[in-house]
Design goal:
Helices cover 61% and strands 0% of the residues. By secondary structure, it is mainly alpha-helical. The radius of gyration is 13 Å and the shape is globular. The chain starts with 12 loop residues before the first helix and ends in a 17-residue tail after the last helix.
């Protein structure tokens, strides 16, 4: 959410990078979802070359694990980051708290 939430007031690129880098370290670099999160955090922070590199690493990992759906997502993220555009998860705006 710190990296991809559509509302600017919720996003915090610096915190997103710190948390995602820590998660990557703890996971031993074996979970492609964490690469997706870190790449989004880098993009939110304006660090697009690092976002592209991280997404590429995630793509390679997802491919090696046979996760074709995630690999396809990574391909679109790489294009987005190369264009200098951060990722926005519009599905988060549809989340509503229960009464």
């Amino acid at each position: 959410m710190f990296a991809t939430y559509p509302e600017e007031s919720v996003r915090n690129g610096t915190q997103a990078v710190q948390l995602a880098e820590q998660a990557l370290k703890l996971s031993g670099g074996k979970n492609p979802i964490i690469f997706r999160t870190l790449a989004a955090a880098y993009a939110e922070s304006g660090r697009f070359p690092e976002a592209v590199d991280t997404a590429q690493r995630g793509l390679e990992l997802a491919t090696s694990q046979g996760n074709t759906d995630l690999a396809t997502e990574f391909q679109s993220y790489i294009l987005l980051y190369r264009a200098g555009t951060p990722l926005r998860d519009t599905s988060l705006t549809n989340v509503r708290s229960s009464p």
